[in-house]
Amino acid sequence: MQICLQIRAYEPVFSRVRQNARNNRDGATPMPLSPEVLSSNSEAVAWLRAFDLTLEPDDEPWFSVDGVEKPRQIGSDGAGGAFVLLPSQNVLYVSSGGRAGIIAGTFEAFVQLVVACPYWLDILKFSAGGDLVEMRRAAMALEATLDDEDDINGARDGVRDALDLSEFDDPVGALYDAVAASDPIVRATDGSPFTTLFNRFSVDSNPMLRDAAA
Question: At the N or C end, where does the chain have fewer CB atoms within 10 A?
Answer without folding.
Answer: C
